[in-house]
Structure formats: structure tokens, C-alpha cells
């Protein structure tokens, strides 16, 4: 099959990133889509790269699907493959069985492995799995610092769903933007004028919470939007 043929590309995946639950969910999805129901365990196998030997790798590549049109092979921490396995895989990549789906997994692409990755990634599909933003008030503050209003509002909603009190969220934001060491010195990205504006917005939100003029959730939503919108 020709390099670049879309049917061929589907046989090889690179799962790169730190979101392990999302990776496993994608693997399960591929199993459901590609393997015959009831035979998934017989047609899907996983290996840790550092434990994989060349004879075992060759044997795994040569196996046939059992009562299923496809097989799946997962190689975890792929960049820890021994050099002889990397060389063999690169040499055989155009000859891989068409009934085999290979998933190469890693948290990151080490700089020293960029040549190997570039050599074989053009034969497959690279799927990034970025770790999700930690759901806490400090994660919310980081989203605000990036001026990412959409992510910040989503995090705020998640905090409310998790039962976080508006006063606690505001307190964490105040600590981040007022009491932290980063507030005491101006930087290129956060000028003194902007810092003073943040203090004013935080004080306004605090007053709204204490007086009950508006619902606490709405008061914090307004605060987040205004903080993200500072020039």
C-alpha cells in the first residue's frame, strides 16, 4: 500500500501526552470499532517498550487476528525502545500487516528522539492528549492570567459543581493576584496599572458577595470576564 494512503495511515497511531484516562478511552473506542465483539482480549495486546525484545516484537507483528478483521498492538513509552527495535520498526513500517493497528504511546517526545519520531510519524496519525487543567481556584487563576476567558469560565462552573464556596474561590484569586510575591514587582506581562485594576475588581466582587447585591455565582462570573479582559 502506498505511503500517504489514508487507509494505511489509519493503521498507525501516535498517542502523545499526559492525559492517561483519555488515551485509554481512545484505545477502548478503537477496540469497539475495529475488533469483533467477544474477541477483544484475544486481539489486543500491550507491551512496555523497555521490556520488548526484537524476537518478541517480530512474533507479535506476525500474529493473525482471531475471529476478527483486525488486531491491535499497543507499545507504551515507545521512545524507550531499544535501538535495534527502532531500526527494525523503521525498516519494516511500509510492510506492516494491513490487519494490524499499532498504537505508539508516550507522555512527551524527548528531543533526542525527534529524528526517530519524524522518520515514522509521517506514516501514521498523531493524536495529542494534553493533560486537563487541574480543577481548583489556582487553575482558574492561571487561566485568567492567560486571558483565556472561555477556559476560565468553564473552570469556574466546574468549581461550583464541585461545591466550592464563592468566598473560597475569591480568596484564592485574591491570594494569587494581591498577596503573592508576583504582585509585589512589575513585569513586562503584568504592569503595575493592571495589577491595581485587578485589586479594584477583586474588592468590587468582595463587596458584592458581602452585601448580596447579586448572586455569588454571577458576581464571580463577572469578575472572571473582567479580569480576563484587562489590557
What report would you give on this structure?
The structure is a single chain. This protein is α/β, with parallel strands linked by helices and 231 residues long. Helix content is 52%, strand content 13%. A five-stranded parallel β-sheet has the order 2-3-4-1-5, with helices on one face. Strand 2, helix 3 and strand 3 (71-76) form a beta-alpha-beta unit. Helix 6 crosses helix 8.
The pLDDT mean sits at 86
Q: Within the CATH hierarchy, at the fold level, what is the topology of the largest domain?
A: Rossmann fold
Form type:
elongated
Specify the helix fraction band: 40-55%
Query: What are the low-pLDDT stretches, counting only 5+ consecutive residues below 50?
Result: 1-9, 181-186
**CATH class membership of the largest domain:** Alpha Beta
CATH architecture of the largest domain: 3-Layer(aba) Sandwich
Amino acid at each position: 500500500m502506498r505511503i500517504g494512503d489514508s487507509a494505511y495511515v489509519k493503521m498507525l497511531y501516535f498517542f502523545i501526552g499526559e492525559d492517561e484516562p483519555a488515551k485509554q478511552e481512545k484505545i477502548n473506542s478503537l477496540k469497539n470499532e475495529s475488533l469483533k465483539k467477544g474477541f477483544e482480549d484475544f486481539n489486543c495486546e500491550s507491551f512496555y517498550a523497555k521490556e520488548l525484545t526484537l524476537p518478541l516484537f517480530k512474533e507479535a507483528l506476525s500474529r493473525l487476528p482471531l475471529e476478527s478483521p483486525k488486531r491491535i498492538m499497543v507499545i507504551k513509552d515507545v521512545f524507550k525502545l531499544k535501538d535495534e527495535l527502532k531500526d527494525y520498526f523503521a525498516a519494516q513500517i511500509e510492510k506492516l500487516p494491513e490487519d494490524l493497528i499499532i498504537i505508539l504511546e508516550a507522555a512527551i517526545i524527548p528531543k533526542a528522539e525527534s529524528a526517530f519520531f519524524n522518520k515514522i510519524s509521517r506514516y501514521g496519525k498523531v493524536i495529542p492528549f494534553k493533560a486537563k487543567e487541574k480543577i481548583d481556584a489556582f487553575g482558574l487563576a492561571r487561566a485568567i492570567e492567560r486571558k483565556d476567558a472561555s477556559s476560565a469560565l468553564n473552570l469556574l462552573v466546574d468549581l461550583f459543581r464541585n461545591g466550592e464556596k464563592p468566598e473560597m474561590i475569591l480568596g484564592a484569586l485574591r491570594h494569587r493576584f494581591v498577596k503573592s510575591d508576583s504582585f509585589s514587582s512589575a513585569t513586562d506581562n503584568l504592569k503595575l496599572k493592571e495589577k491595581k485594576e485587578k485589586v479594584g475588581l477583586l474588592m468590587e466582587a468582595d463587596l458584592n458577595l458581602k452585601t448580596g447585591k447579586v448572586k455569588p455565582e454571577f458576581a464571580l462570573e463577572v469578575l472572571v470576564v473582567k479580569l480576563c479582559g484587562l489590557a
